[in-house]
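Regression test case RT-17, inverse folding.

Input:
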């Protein structure tokens, strides 16, 4: 499998997290957990599936954004308005520029079918949101350490 020649990730010093979350409380909780764990990278928030796809594909409010500059990881909720998370994942994996984007489903869904379909569509990781804030903060710390520090992004050309 080859990487499209124009695909790039944000440089290490400018890593970007795309948080796709419609619930304001979960958004605030995630941002707070990132900050508490010293993860100070830029976080771009999309509040529904359409906004996430608009950001990634530089459409709508994001026209003019260089679509070749991808976030380093997308944290994707499943139960989103307008377009659900699984459809976002489907479209991300179908596009040559976004197909290698690391995607972590971060959801409160307990439906086994969501888990199966997420992995069938090529999600990199599936994490159920812990209810407890301390456990949630630890999960976010581990996510940040892995995806922003340890993980090797696909090569830039």
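Golden output:
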């Amino acid at each position: 499998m080859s990487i499209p020649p124009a695909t790039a990730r944000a440089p290490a010093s400018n890593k970007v997290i795309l948080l796709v979350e419609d619930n304001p409380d979960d958004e605030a909780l995630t941002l707070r957990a990132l900050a508490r764990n010293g993860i100070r990278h830029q976080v771009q928030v999309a509040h529904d599936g359409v906004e996430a796809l608009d950001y990634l594909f530089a459409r709508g409010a994001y026209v003019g954004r260089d679509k070749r500059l991808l976030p380093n990881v997308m944290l994707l909720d499943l139960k989103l308005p307008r377009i659900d998370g699984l459809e976002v994942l489907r479209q991300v994996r179908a596009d040559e520029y976004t197909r290698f984007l690391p995607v972590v489903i971060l959801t409160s869904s307990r439906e086994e079918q969501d888990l199966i379909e997420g992995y069938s569509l090529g999600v990199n990781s599936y994490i159920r949101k812990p209810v407890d804030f301390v456990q949630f903060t630890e999960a976010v710390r581990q996510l940040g350490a892995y995806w922003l520090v340890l993980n090797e992004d696909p090569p830039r050309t």
